[in-house]
Structures are given as C-alpha cells and as structure tokens.
Amino acid sequence: MPTYLTEGVILRRVDYGEADRILTVLTREHGKIGVIARGVRKSGSRLAAHTDLFARSRMQLARGRGELDVLTQAETMGSAAPLADARRAACAAVCAELADRVLEGNHPDEETFDLVVDALRDCTDSSRDPRGALVWLTRRMIDRLGYAPQLHHCASCSTALLETSAWFSAIAGGLLCDRCALSDPGAVECSVRVIKVLRVAAAGDAELYRRLRLDEASLVTLEAVAERELAQHLDRQLRSLPVLRAIERR
C-alpha cells in the first residue's frame, strides 16, 4: 500500500475489535480523515502514546482499501497534552467535537487546522484560560459556517447600535436594540465589554484576543452567546457541552 506523511491532531477515537482504534484525525494537508491504528491497545504498543486524544503528531499513513487509512508510524510534536485537569480536558473535548461536527472530510484548510490546533493547545496550557480558547474557536467556526452575526447594527431593524449594552439573538442573527430585543425572550444581554470582545473575534484578530483579560461575568455571557448559536446552527447539541457544564457547577 502506498504511504504518505502528514501532520495531524486527533479529534476522536473509538476502540475497535480486541486491540485496534479508529481515529478521526484533522490533518494539515488532507483535512479530516479516518485512520485505523492496528494493535495500538496492546501492551507495549509503540504507537499508543501518539494516539492520545488531542495529540498532535507527524504521522505516516498507508492508503487503505476502504475509507480508513492505516497508521504505520507516528511522532508526537511538542509535549503531550496534560489532561489531569477535568475542566481543561472538557473544554478540549468540546473544541474537538465542534471541529469534528463542522468540518467535512477530505477538505484541507490550513487556516482552520491552525485554528483548531491553537485552541486545543490553549485548552491544555496552564497559563491560558480554556474557556477563552473555547469561546474563540466557537466564534471563528460559526463565522466559517457562514453565520457571522451582525454586531454593529440591530439585526432586526438595522439601526446603528450605540455604545451601550445590547441583546444577542441567535435566531435574529446578531445584536438587537432594546426595542427589538422584546421579540426574542431567549436573547442574551451583552455589556459594552462583551460586545467589543465579540467584534474582536469577528475581525479574526487572534493576537488582540489573546491579550484580552476576560472577567468571569464576560466569560459567562460569551459562553451563553456561543451555546445559543451552536444550538441554532447545528442539527444537534454537542455531547461534550453538558459534561463541561456539570464540571463547572461543582
């Protein structure tokens, strides 16, 4: 079977048979692909350490006869993701599931690959807030789906928004003025600070976003906005979100 090299990050894995695993891998050169890691669950497998969830590796793959390619060699890039922190692991799981759900198979996109890799790295970096990383990835992925929200004018009446709080409506597709907010009881009230963060994310300014210090109240609001958008634009809820919320309630 012909082989090829690629850089990839593991989004999902499922045990298969007695010793194998089926991996969903987001690669830089080939997009999202399915991979089978044969014998990886056997004691002493040299590939086991390179098939951890969220691990970023340089992989050698053999073209399979079916839909799955075969993992033949792998080398982890950088340090292994520390997942002892349940909250960080849960945030990383949401990021990985979101990428898996949104991205189509075999459609390479280097910008999206870097976006997902950076989010997973920030989720497991003790110097970064994983919730901020999750909010950033969600905002960027929603934009890439073609659902960029209206953040400068009322999404209902098109009135220019003043520098004051407004209401975010996933149904309307953006911020609403006080008058139009009455039409959506589920709209989320956003402070001026939150609105500025949403605009930074919409502009795709990753460096500026990373410099922001998000307080607890802002994070709670940004998460609420993101969850309503995901519920509006995805056909079903992400399974990992309730796990994250249960951990945060402890």
Automatic annotation (TrEMBL):
Residues 1-78 form the DNA replication/recombination mediator RecO N-terminal domain. One of its GO terms (cellular component) is bacterial nucleoid. One of its GO terms (biological process) is DNA recombination. InterPro entries: ARFGAP/RecO, DNA_rep/recomb_RecO_N, NA-bd_OB-fold, RecO, RecO_C. SUPFAM superfamilies: ArfGap/RecO-like zinc finger, Nucleic acid-binding proteins. Keywords: DNA damage, DNA recombination, DNA repair. Belongs to the RecO family. Involved in DNA repair and RecF pathway recombination. This is DNA repair protein RecO. It comes from Candidatus Aeolococcus gillhamiae. The gene is recO.
